[in-house]
Write the structure tokens for this entry.
Amino acid sequence: MSESITRPEHISEAEWELRIKLAHCYHLVDYFGWTETIFNHISARLMDQEGCYLVNPFGLNYTEITPANLIKVDVDGNKLDDSPYDGNPAGFALHGAIHEARDDIHCVIHTHTNAVSAVAAKKDGFSMNNFYGAQMYGRVGFHAFEGITLFQDEKSRMLESLGDKHVLILRNHGIAVGEMDIERTFFLLWSAQRAAEIQVAAGAAGGEDVIIEDAIGQKCADLTQMLIKESGFADKFFNAMVRKMEAERGACW
């Protein structure tokens, strides 16, 4: 198994475990076909190192990412370890802002798949009128498109758009999701992706949608959160997907 690779002496056991999970997450995003070549980002906060998070080295395919070559940066995107790689500045404003401001979010994933980007381009945005959309009821914020997210002054506006939510629709762009750990963030991304795919398919099918009542949507979202946080549901899902991926592709590194 890929977990048996040797941990460098200068990296703590806790950080190494996080690096393994984050590298698996990158490989899973590629496995599901959600990559945008070498672009986009997945970041994970280092809990024992204040103001630091791990992110992908810019220029590598997601399949080339390993626990060892992930880079460590601060919330402003400054590299904190000795690495031949640099990060992609386009990700620092979004990820750094969320990691700095939201203590309850320890992992952030940003993608712009076809389905998600199509929904993000629509005025009404995400629909809650399907099984997966209902699970995100009350958890979605929207941020107006300002171009490529390179500039520090956009941070405050993105955070205002996110508020206390865990899903941020970047209008005309894509999506960012964040949760308390890598497993729960990946499950949230999977749910959002499925919601977008079904919404796009339902729209192509024509006809009127059946509207889910607000009370039912809230009930669905609350129940999903209970399952994810209390039952180990997201951990089981993440580990199962890693096993499935490695059974088909072999060990990740």
